[in-house]
Design a protein that fits this description.
This protein is an all-beta fold. It has two domains: about 280 residues, 7 Propeller (Methylamine Dehydrogenase, Chain H); about 70 residues, no CATH class. It contains no helices and 35 strands. The strands form nine sheets. Strands 1-30-34-33 form a four-stranded antiparallel sheet, with no helix packed on it. A hairpin with a 5-residue loop joins β18 and β19. The protein is globular. It starts with 7 loop residues before the first strand and ends in a 10-residue tail after the last strand. About 40% of the residues are buried.
Length: about 375
């Protein structure tokens, strides 16, 4: 292979979080996430996509490549998944946000960010993540009657809606809280017997047997959001302290909190059985934590900001002096210094004077950049 042209300047810059909007199944064996990154060897664009991790590898769930009405590209976000992992959904950022569910291999319009019951039977159409209006529907019904409620947050396994009406929060027709103030996010177990919500002023309120209890936060901590296991026995909390996000979990009816450490943003989720938490660590690692044993396993390498070209970052080759890159297409490779193997680089953007590419996050070795040998495609 020919060495990298000396007239080209190589640089890289850390992008935004590799993964976000985590959602996992009942046993924590699969996790869905949104990302702007791209798997090595694929032709997906740099827009937001949904991936899943399962059986030791990442794969693409949805990768939209649509440019609606001539505006910016569609980006996928906000995955949801049923406890058995068979039904899932995702939202799309576009000129008008939309989304869809996948039920028994069929795609169903969500008309807004998806929201799904734990058993995967009920879903909300038109829910946009801020307690906005939605219609409840059932995957099993051929004709579901309109059940539209404003300020709806979630849906139980029996199809009851968690909704806010004025200063009160109802689950179906049962009043669960009054005068909660502005709700920022909610969490609910599968049957709705336990609800938690984050408010603007009070922090995190945990409803146990109809009583509002302010859950334990760190000194000067502010709750970002919370999640509950399917039976409500374990509560995951993400809080903000001095600009940093920290995750911890609590056992029902037991004092104390169990720290999980710093996370990037609010990116953590608990499995339905309450035994597994997936979280995005501040160094970019997607990590699975087994709560009973504390065992941790990261599914990708960290992103050390001190390195000029490390896994998961965006790199660029820029024309300097009189050296041009030509018209492409380009075949950029990474070549391992230790194994001699090569890996194609996903090209994010290319013009006559620069190429932007992604260094895949799977890499854990030290690599050199090189051009591949001449092929039927244009060689630089």
């Amino acid at each position: 292979m020919k060495p990298l042209l000396s007239g080209l300047l190589l640089f890289s810059a850390l992008g935004q979080a590799q993964f976000r909007d985590l959602a996992t199944a009942f046993d924590g064996s699969v996790v869905h996430c949104a990302t702007d990154m791209r798997l090595a060897g694929t032709l997906d664009g740099s827009q937001g996509k949904n991936y899943k991790w399962q059986d030791g590898k990442f794969s693409v769930v949805i990768s939209p490549n649509v440019t609606p009405l001539g505006f910016r590209s569609v980006s996928a976000f906000g995955p949801v998944i049923s406890d058995d992992g068979a039904t899932y959904g995702y939202g799309f950022h576009a000129f008008v946000d939309s989304g869809e569910y996948v039920y028994k291999g069929n795609r169903i319009d969500a008309a807004g960010q998806p929201r799904l019951s734990r058993n995967g039977l009920y879903y909300l159409r038109g829910w946009n993540g801020g307690g906005t209006a939605a219609t409840r529907l059932s995957f099993l019904a051929t004709a579901e009657p309109a059940f539209r409620v404003s300020s709806v947050w979630d849906v139980t396994n029996s199809g009851d809606l968690l909704a806010q009406r004025g200063d009160s929060v109802f689950l179906g027709e049962r009043l669960v809280a009054t005068a909660p103030g502005k709700i920022l996010s909610t969490a609910m177990n599968a049957d709705g017997s336990r609800v938690a919500y984050v408010t603007q002023h009070d922090g995190l309120l945990d409803l146990r047997e109809g009583n509002s209890v302010l859950a334990s936060l760190s000194d000067k901590g502010t709750a970002l959001r919370a999640e509950l296991s399917s039976d409500g026995g374990r509560l995951l909390v993400i809080e903000s302290i001095g600009g940093s996000s920290r995750a911890f979990w609590m056992e029902r009816n037991l004092p104390g909190r169990n720290e999980l450490g710093l996370v990037r943003g609010g990116n953590a989720t608990i499995s339905g059985d309450g035994r597994v938490v997936w979280l995005l660590q501040t160094d970019g690692r997607l990590t699975r934590v087994k709560l009973d044993s504390g065992e941790r396993e990261s599914m990708n390498e960290p992103l050390p900001a001190s390195l000029p070209a490390s896994s998961g970052v965006r790199g660029s080759l820029v024309r300097v002096e009189s050296v041009g890159l030509g018209d492409g297409p380009w075949l950029l490779n990474l070549v391992s210094q230790t194994e001699g193997t090569s890996l194609p680089l996903p090209v994010l953007e290319s013009t006559a004077d620069h190429v932007d590419f992604q260094i895949p996050w799977q890499l854990s070795d030290s690599f050199n950049y090189s051009w591949p040998p001449a092929t039927s495609q244009r060689d630089i």
